[in-house]
Amino acid sequence: MAALGVFCLLLGAVSWPPASASGEEFWPGQSAADILSGAASRRRYLLYDVNPPEGFNLRRDVYIRVASLLKTLLKTEEWVLVLPPWGRLYHWKSPDIHQVRIPWSDFFDLPSLSRNIPVIEYEQFIAESGGPFIDQVYVLQGYAEGWKEGAWEEKIDSRPCIEPPLYSQDKHEYYRGWFWGYEETRGLNVSCLSVQGSASIIAPVLLRNTSARSVMLDRAENLLHDHYGGKEYWDTRRSMVFAKHLRAVGDEFRSRYLNSTDAADRIPFEEDWTKMKVKLGSSLGGPYLGVHLRRKDFIWGHREDVPSLEGAVRRIRSLMKTHQLDKVFVATDAARKELDGLRRLLPEMVRFEPTWEELELYKDGGVAIVDQWVCAHARILRHAGCRGVCGLPGRRVPCPVPGDTSCRLSRGVFYRHFGLHVLLSNSRGERNPGVGPQDDLQPVLWGRGEGVRAAHALEDRVLSRPAGAPHAGSQLPLGQVAPPGQGPPGWAAGCPLSGLRPGSPAEPRCVCPAFPRPTCLP
């Protein structure tokens, strides 16, 4: 029997195909069962991370860019996007709560994401690939010489690292790093790529320059959007549906404290975002004003632009009176002392204040999502204390409220029942590379719809467009004028679609197109 066993072992060794015969190589963590069965999936894994200080919504935006890259890769090979676990965000400051290694399913609905691109959680990647090993880590960086004046050029090159990478080799010559809080994860190779361009510029590198089965792009925020504002962009944005349990918490809160339900507010919703169709002007929104009041770190850098609490309350009361609302929901990061002052000034204020058990369950990120969800369903949403947009701090423009011309241009002011959308990109990657990186002001895309809906309460989005209007992804040149009959319904012929342009004081400005007789202002 022993001799027979040795013979069988030798026979198995002879019949075992060498790795080079199939072009496949053994990778760390690969199981013997995978090799023996020959059934191991040959799909490749794309991972990514961003600069640690970046916040929740910039990370969401980077996901859109990487999703576009994955779609490009899928045209040639089978790839899947590994979702980077959440954790250690600057604004998540609740003490004594474990807020690392958070899976995406805690915040987003994975089936909805998967209707757009194939995605898996990081721990599923570990299980599928056989261990916490990443074959190739590319650290994305700019060019040491920077970008010079002239024609914009998209390019990518293997270059020495400008700054020392945040990785170190252990005694086995594997690379250790942050890796989303998974201390056991190792990188097998780390190198730097200088990149200047949209996300898919890196596709040839992944398809031709490396055979690594798993590839991680660190500092992925250095990639720009492939088609900012196009159909692919909005498909990905729409797929980022918040987790069902957080939506349920927000809906229950709306019903209990704000007398707001989807049925009463005429808000349509489908679990499958691909089937969700919205009829223009159909939604009413809840009978309350939604306010996002930014404080803390935002005040430090914008002291001249951020109103005092008293000023914010005056503005809130003015809006409540204008729109005949007696309830206001406030989402804010204000400190306890400011909150106490806000309650004294605005006793009718309603806030989502979780118990300790709820905070531990939902985390700071989940609580912020509930805030966004409730704001998104308000009849009116005012973003108080938002960024100065597109290099236009302090410019006074007409407001959608009749007779009120005191507000500043802000992507954070949305009027649901007016159906106004002014889409402005900012200087943090949401720009058209063809315009050149020196321009903070980008083409403005427009459309009319239902205001903020189910994606991100504090950003605008186009759900649909009027007949005859340019596609939401059209890059309209700055200052382009809407030809008669081709602008949004109610838009006066001759008004520029793209808003204001720095250095062009003579350019006319347009009032809100939702009013009966909009006209251009001198």
UniProtKB/TrEMBL annotation:
<dbReference type="GO" id="GO:0010468">
    <property type="term" value="P:regulation of gene expression"/>
</dbReference>
<dbReference type="GO" id="GO:0005789">
    <property type="term" value="C:endoplasmic reticulum membrane"/>
</dbReference>
<keyword id="KW-0732">Signal</keyword>
<comment type="similarity">
    <text>Belongs to the glycosyltransferase 68 family.</text>
</comment>
<keyword id="KW-0119">Carbohydrate metabolism</keyword>
<dbReference type="GO" id="GO:0051046">
    <property type="term" value="P:regulation of secretion"/>
</dbReference>
<keyword id="KW-0333">Golgi apparatus</keyword>
<dbReference type="Pfam" id="PF10250">
    <property type="entry name" value="O-FucT"/>
</dbReference>
<keyword id="KW-0808">Transferase</keyword>
<keyword id="KW-1015">Disulfide bond</keyword>
<dbReference type="InterPro" id="IPR019378">
    <property type="entry name" value="GDP-Fuc_O-FucTrfase"/>
</dbReference>
<feature type="compositionally biased region" description="Low complexity">
    <location>
        <begin position="475"/>
        <end position="494"/>
    </location>
</feature>
<dbReference type="GO" id="GO:0006004">
    <property type="term" value="P:fucose metabolic process"/>
</dbReference>
<dbReference type="GO" id="GO:0005794">
    <property type="term" value="C:Golgi apparatus"/>
</dbReference>
<dbReference type="GO" id="GO:1903334">
    <property type="term" value="P:positive regulation of protein folding"/>
</dbReference>
<keyword id="KW-0328">Glycosyltransferase</keyword>
<dbReference type="InterPro" id="IPR045130">
    <property type="entry name" value="OFUT2-like"/>
</dbReference>
<dbReference type="GO" id="GO:0046922">
    <property type="term" value="F:peptide-O-fucosyltransferase activity"/>
</dbReference>
<keyword id="KW-0325">Glycoprotein</keyword>
<keyword id="KW-0294">Fucose metabolism</keyword>
<feature type="region of interest" description="Disordered">
    <location>
        <begin position="466"/>
        <end position="496"/>
    </location>
</feature>
<comment type="function">
    <text>Catalyzes the reaction that attaches fucose through an O-glycosidic linkage to a conserved serine or threonine residue in the consensus sequence C1-X-X-S/T-C2 of thrombospondin type I repeats (TSRs) where C1 and C2 are the first and second cysteines of the repeat, respectively. O-fucosylates members of several protein families including the ADAMTS, the thrombospondin (TSP) and spondin families. Required for the proper secretion of ADAMTS family members such as ADAMTSL1 and ADAMTS13.</text>
</comment>
<feature type="signal peptide">
    <location>
        <begin position="1"/>
        <end position="21"/>
    </location>
</feature>
<protein>
    <recommendedName>
        <fullName>GDP-fucose protein O-fucosyltransferase 2</fullName>
        <ecNumber>2.4.1.221</ecNumber>
    </recommendedName>
</protein>
<comment type="pathway">
    <text>Protein modification; protein glycosylation.</text>
</comment>
<dbReference type="GO" id="GO:0010717">
    <property type="term" value="P:regulation of epithelial to mesenchymal transition"/>
</dbReference>
<dbReference type="GO" id="GO:0001707">
    <property type="term" value="P:mesoderm formation"/>
</dbReference>
<keyword id="KW-0256">Endoplasmic reticulum</keyword>
